[in-house]
Amino acid sequence: MKRILTFSIVCAGLAVVLAGATPTGVAASRAETLRTVYFSAVDSKGAMISDLTAADLSVKEGGKDRQIASVKAATAPMQVAILIDDGGTGAFQAAVAQFLQATVGHGQFAISILNPQPQKVVNFIEDVPGLQAAIARLGQRGRVSVDGEQIIEAVAESARELQQRKATRPVIVALSTSGETALSDRADPALKDLRDSGAGLNVLYITGIELGKVLGDGPKQSGGMVQQAGSGLAIGPALSKIADNLMHQYVLTYNLPDGVKMNEKLSLATSRKGVTILAPSRLPEK
């Protein structure tokens, strides 16, 4: 049965379909370690690929081939931290409502706004009334000073929080109209926090702003998606692509042999022609 999420801009139905799953597949011996990776795949036109199997994929960790234990559609609940850097304009309100329409029922959501420091609007909830109230607070709030350091810190803070919560399928979605400081001494520590959390960083930015190490390289390293939009009506479809990507992820497990230390470097490839894999290139070291 559909429940309705309403506010002054968007009125849309929310289909709640939630199923939990645990990866299964080839059993590893007691001496082996199973590592888990969430990833997605798109074709040459950007459409999601939903029928990949283990036979289509190869995994290298630290440059060494690893045996794939299983590949399945990801159905485990997500833990999604949404960061709103809109300068107080309310530019992302409608798009966030549409994003939640597509993903509600598939995890818990935290929303923070930058004023300019990150301020939590709601902290990892899944109920529709609570999300409705949060969306209502994302409208125009008056001009907010732009600080390119704060989006970096917001990503790092969200990553640390997800790690502390021991999130099993952590996701960060950063929306920015102003970008980040290009040469920031906070960037490398933030990328380390992102890697350690295992979260996938997804970024939507307004065309023309500057992306630095975190918003630019973070999605590549963590297996997330980057989308840009001109402004206005283009924002919704751009954020919807990120939602679609999350809803079509796979969960892959592979074996790490006995005595082999974990390595942060990952390479996931496919033999399918014309298919691009969106997977992390950096993993937590433990």
Describe this structure in words.
This protein has two domains: 33-74 and 250-278, no CATH class; 78-247, von Willebrand factor, type A domain (Rossmann fold, 3-Layer(aba) Sandwich). Helix content is 25%, strand content 31%. It is built from six helices and 15 strands. The strands form four sheets. Strands 9-8-7-10-11-12 form a six-stranded mixed beta sheet, with helices on both faces. α1 runs antiparallel to α2 (128-136) and α1 (93-103) packs parallel to α6 (235-247). The longest helix has 17 residues, at 148-164. The chain starts with a strand and ends in an 8-residue tail after the last strand. Residues 1-29 have low confidence and may be disordered.
List how many beta strands DSSP finds.
15
Helix/strand structural class: alpha/beta
CATH topology of the largest domain: Rossmann fold
Low-pLDDT segments = 1-29
Report the span from N to C terminus.
41 Å
Major sheet attributes: 6 strands, mixed
Percent range for β-strand residues? 25-35%
Order of the strands making up the biggest sheet: 9-8-7-10-11-12
Gross CATH architecture of the largest domain: 3-Layer(aba) Sandwich
At the first level of CATH, what is the class of the largest domain? Alpha Beta
**C-alpha geometry:** globular
Number of helical segments? 6
Give the H and E element order.
EEEEEEEHEEHHEHEHEHEEE
Relative helix content? 10-25%
* Count of domain modules: 2
- Nearest-angstrom radius of gyration? 19 Å
CATH superfamily of the largest domain: von Willebrand factor, type A domain
